[in-house]
Amino acid sequence: MERNFETVMIEQCAPVLASLKPAGLFRYETRDCADLARRVKNWNTQLNPKGLRVRVLKGCVLNHRYLVYVYRESRLTAVLADGFLRQEGYHLPAERADCTAWLTQLSRRLCCSAEFPHEIGVFLGYPLSDVVGFIENSGRNFTCCGCWKAYGDPQAAQRHFAQLRKCTAVYLRLFHSGTPILRLAVAA
Question: pTM of the predicted model, to two decimals?
């Protein structure tokens, strides 16, 4: 069943629109690839001035499912610059100031692997300690679980998860009462 692109974007990426996270990801199902391409182009035109970008990272025309990535390039570049991705086999040109090379390699890994690459947590703005903890523990031994599995201070993680859930609830309420996404997107 196809769901409205904008509703799914708010449900899954409200903290990105609010500038609480550098990036978010959602699955969108549609049989109309051309419409999806138009939507992505349209949202980039509208959201780029606010520092946001929209990109399809993975798509399958057979099952009509697409992974759509919404991100703030300036914040994502800062998060990705710590060298962790090089340890995970990403080859990054030193002169690139944007995240295009990282996202292209992530897209290839998503398309070529049956499993989600675990480093995707870094691309979604999860704390590096949680991404490393997940990889080292094979997803077990976490201290708490919310928007992702946390491996550090469970109280701090729960506060952060509560902040993200509250943001999503507020954005959904505003969106459903008629506030357009462009007004909800914070310029950063």
Answer: 0.94
